[in-house]
Design brief:
The chain is an alpha/beta fold. It folds into three domains: about 300 residues, Na+/H+ antiporter like fold; about 100 residues, Rossmann fold (3-Layer(aba) Sandwich), CATH 3.40.50.620; about 150 residues, 3-Layer(aba) Sandwich (Rossmann fold), CATH 3.40.50. The C terminus is likely disordered. Helix content is about 60%, strand content about 10%. Helix 18 links the parallel strand 1 and strand 2. The protein is elongated and about 100 Å long. It starts with 10 loop residues before the first helix and ends in a 5-residue tail after the last helix. The longest helix has about 35 residues. It has 26 helices and ten strands.
Length: about 725
């Protein structure tokens, strides 16, 4: 028993020491090649009441530790790729059953016949063996292998194992309270779990989408996310489940609305990794009493418990490897992720310790309590090491198995974001971030924010500086470098074109023109002039809602678009956008383009939900546009005159969008095209045509009549179409 008071009791000094540990521990551990998680736990042991007794485990460690654990589980759910998770759901269920039942059987037998405890205590201990915490998941995330099948299988297995362990725990408590097993208690808990999941699945997406639409400020969004997470955790604990399950489930549900490459996601990860999670790990270390190892039979009991905990999880991983025909590194990954015991283990041993038997003894004495703490220590130390070793080999294998990575160097793009309106600067920057590849080093995409002015007035200068600042803030929030450019030129278009030449720009992303007069064209004179001056990819965006709240991306491509030079680039860009946002993308194209798009998505390993609809003519386009919802992003692929994919339907689409799609979220993409610069613009200029293919007036009149007849025919039969 610790009698002496801790050396440091001042709250400011306590917080200072913890921050110093968080700061210095990674620096020292990197030299020793020790995982950060282990270092934080060891540091907690050193400064805790059972070490040097510098700090006492006061209420701050209790609060921050609980918050850190919930934050850790929330991040684990948030960083999971839901598309790949669904693809591995069946394998994950089987592995979950293995990693639950094998520890349960081995735990019960070892507890009864080796530790000589009662059957009820044996089931409680076995539920502790069966459960685990994804404490090593940040290691897999740091290696960028969260989409690996072994990682996703482990995540699904974690859900099943934790839920199963909680059901066993509830059953044991029910038997202790009533003296007999009552299935109604388990059924009631399972029913509450089902209702809880359905309520979260229904309410959270709607609340989040509505809130993000109305409030775009990142601090406000971050606080809202925290409220949702801890509300889910509190409700989960209130109905008899573990709060960690609620935090993890909240991460899975909110995954869709927090893109991985967004400022909000960067803020969530920064706060968690810098404060809450290290605080939790240090607090775990402070609970460990190293002195109990040499007292009594604690070491022997802890050895038996540790062998059962490790061996049962290894057997489950080995069987899964054999059943799924996986590599040895995948087995080690599944074993490493499912080895650590923290939250549920502490809950089980605490409940067992507080159960007083009729003879006055505790169901789980101090020996089992200390043994459980040692199991937590060793499993939390082993899990990151095993996971790190497996992650490095899986990462190398994933790089070697890529069909072709030679195109990465050639496809590195430079993106220019012309900003002139502070209201839209941040949104355009986020769109550029979502459409780019997430790469680092010399192959990373370069982003430029440009403001062009043609006067020296203070209003123009202030407007430009404010627009550039907002763009820089959006990029820095996503931990991305962006180069600001303030340019003085004769006009905006000339400044953009000159900058593109100087910086070798591959892609331009800008806001859509707002029609000011009756004679004004759909895109405006400036954008038309820009399109005449460059054959690079131009993205014109108009979104009334944040991009991360989009439910679907509906893409409409013209006939023969697959022959354009930039066909592959815009497919990849939209694929990255759909991947970041986590929404479904629907390609409305000709039958010839659909297998090409499938091949690009498969080759780039985009991992997105994609569907296809055949669109043959203008009437199909009209029917499609009428089915676009207010939460959809309608993407129309344009074409310049004299290009392969240009046709008269392009002009008709522009007129339709100008008249009937004023309230839709719209994005018009002009793919990259090489060759001679067009003399006239296409999309909204009905007079622009290719003189080589100009038809006679008689044929144009006949074709118009035939098209009208075909349109009327389809309007009477479109209800039978899919």
């Amino acid at each position: 028993m610790i009698c002496a008071a801790a050396l440091v009791t001042d709250p400011v000094a306590i917080f200072l020491i913890v921050m110093a540990i968080i700061l210095l521990a990674p620096v020292i551990l990197n030299k020793l090649k020790i995982p950060h998680i282990i270092g934080m736990i060891v540091a907690g042991v050193a400064v805790g009441p059972y070490g040097l007794d510098i700090l006492d485990r006061d209420s701050s460690f209790t609060i921050f530790g609980q918050v850190g654990l919930l934050y850790l589980m929330f991040l684990a759910g948030l960083e999971i790729d839901m598309y790949h998770l669904r693809k591995n759901i069946r394998k994950g269920i089987l592995f979950g059953l293995l990693t639950f039942f094998i520890p349960m059987v081995m735990g019960v037998l070892a507890s009864v016949y080796i530790l000589h405890v009662s059957w009820l205590t044996s089931f409680l201990l076995a539920s502790m063996y069966a459960s685990h915490t994804l404490i090593a998941y940040p290691v897999a995330a740091r290696f960028g292998i969260t989409k690996a099948p072994s990682v996703l299988i482990s995540v699904v297995g974690t859900i099943i194992a934790v839920v199963g362990a909680l059901l066993v725990l509830a059953g044991a408590v029910n038997i202790f309270d009533t003296g007999s097993f009552q299935p109604s208690g388990i059924l009631w808990l399972f029913g509450k779990l089902t209702l809880y999941c359905l309520a979260v699945l229904y309410a959270y997406p709607r609340l989040t989408r509505r809130f993000f639409k109305q409030y775009s400020e990142k601090v406000t969004q971050y606080v809202f996310v925290l409220v949702m997470v801890f509300l889910s955790a509190w409700v989960s604990g209130a109905i008899g489940l573990e709060p960690v399950l609620g935090a993890f489930f909240a991460g899975l549900v909110l995954n869709r609305y927090i893109p991985a490459n967004s400022p909000l996601m960067n803020s969530i990860e920064f706060v968690g990794n810098a404060l809450f999670i290290p605080y939790f790990l240090i607090g775990v270390g402070m609970m460990i009493n190293v002195g109990v190892i040499v007292k009594g039979n604690t070491l022997a009991i802890a050895t038996v418990m540790l062998i059962v905990a490790l061996l049962s999880k290894w057997i489950a991983a080995w069987i899964a490897q054999f059943a799924y025909h996986m590599d040895a590194s995948d087995r080690r990954m599944m074993f490493g992720l499912t080895t650590a015991h923290t939250a549920v283990a502490l809950a089980v041993v605490t409940i067992g310790y507080n159960m007083i038997l009729p003879d006055g003894t505790r169901m789980m004495g101090e020996t089992i309590l200390n043994g459980t703490v040692l199991v937590i220590l060793f499993t939390c130390a082993i899990a990151p090491i095993v996971t790190s070793q497996a992650a490095s080999k899986i990462k190398i294998r994933m790089l070697e198995d890529r069909p072709d990575s030679s195109h990465d160097d050639a496809s590195a793009v430079s993106v220019l974001i012309p900003v002139s309106n502070p209201i839209t600067s941040a949104a355009l920057t986020e769109l550029a971030l979502f459409m780019r590849r997430r790469r680092t080093g010399i192959n990373a995409d370069k982003l430029y924010a440009l403001h062009v002015r043609n006067d020296n007035t203070s209003a123009s200068k202030n407007m430009g500086q404010n627009s550039l600042k907002l763009s820089l803030d959006a990029a820095s929030g996503a931990d991305t470098a962006i180069t600001p450019i303030e340019r003085f030129d004769i006009n905006t278009v000339t400044g953009i074109l000159n900058t593109m030449q100087e910086r070798d720009i591959n892609r331009v992303i800008l806001g859509m023109h707002r029609k000011a007069t009756v004679i004004d064209t759909f895109l405006g004179a400036k954008i038309e002039q820009l399109l005449r001056g460059t054959n690079r990819m131009v993205v014109i965006s108009r979104c009334y809602i944040p991009v991360n709240t989009v439910t679907r991306i509906v893409v409409c491509a013209p006939e023969k678009a697959e022959y354009e030079t930039g066909f592959r680039d815009w497919v990849i860009a939209l694929g990255h956008l759909a991947s970041e946002v986590g929404c479904r993308i629907i390609f409305c194209t000709s039958e010839r383009q659909q297998p090409i798009i499938r091949g690009i998505i498969r080759h780039e390993a985009l991992g997105i939900r994609h569907e296809y609809q055949t669109m043959a003519d203008m009437d199909d386009f009209v029917l499609l546009a009428n089915r676009v919802l207010e939460d959809d992003l309608f993407v129309v692929i344009g074409a310049r005159p004299n290009s392969v994919s240009y046709s008269a339907d392009i002009t008709e689409k522009a007129l339709f969008l100008q008249r009937y799609c004023t309230s839709n979220n719209l994005c018009i993409i002009y793919p990259e095209q090489f060759g001679e610069e067009p003399a006239q613009y296409t999309f909204s200029d009905p007079l622009g045509s290719d003189i080589v293919t100009t038809a006679s007036p008689l044929w144009l009149a006949v074709r118009s009549r035939l098209q009208r007849i075909n349109q009327w025919k389809k309007r009477f039969t479109h209800r039978n179409r899919r």
